[in-house]
Design brief:
Elements (H helix, E strand, L loop, with lengths): L5 H8 L2 H27 L19 H24 L9 H28 L10 H25 L2
Helix pairs in contact: 2-3, 2-5, 4-5
Length: 159
């Protein structure tokens, strides 16, 4: 086997979960950067970043939001680790769970598209990027959920 075909063949022998792992880790790292950026702003360490009100809607007070974000990071890190190792609870295919997660991911992504449209319609002074930090990072999380759900669907369907 020559060196030009080795990477392609290695990719074919790699498990589907391990092929997906880098994408999951990338999305998780993006979310972590968002959480760290908001934390830095809240502590006054990053005056060069947008102000605190640009980072979230205020639906939750920041301490509760931060706790929820850390919980999400821990959960997604465990999922990503299972995918990297090719074993664990989160890579075992489950038909109903996988389908539910996938549909939830699509609905979540679509809801954030609708939120963006409403944000731009109701607050024209914010066009195109005002108030979008939370929306963009909800897209990141929705993308993670969609990839996770698609993996489960593919494993069940034999794709």
């Amino acid at each position: 086997m020559d060196q030009t075909t080795a990477p392609a063949q290695a990719d074919k022998t790699m498990s589907p979960s391990r092929r997906l792992a880098p994408f999951l880790w990338t999305l998780l790292c993006l979310f972590i950067l968002r959480v760290l950026g908001q934390l830095a702003v809240s502590l006054g360490w990053a005056p060069f970043l947008p102000p605190m009100d640009a980072w979230y809607s205020g639906l939750l007070t920041y301490p509760y939001l931060l706790t929820a974000q850390i919980s999400i990071i821990l959960l997604l890190a465990k999922v990503s680790l299972d995918f990297t190792q090719g074993e664990g609870l989160f890579i075992r295919p489950h038909r109903l769970f996988g389908r539910g997660v996938l549909y939830f991911g699509y609905l979540y992504f679509a809801a954030m598209i609708l939120r963006y449209i409403l944000q731009m319609s109701l607050y024209p002074e914010n066009r195109w990027f005002g108030g979008t930090i939370p929306i963009v990072f909800h897209w990141v999380l929705a993308s993670y959920v969609i990839l996770f759900g698609r993996y489960h669907r593919a494993q069940i369907n034999g794709d």
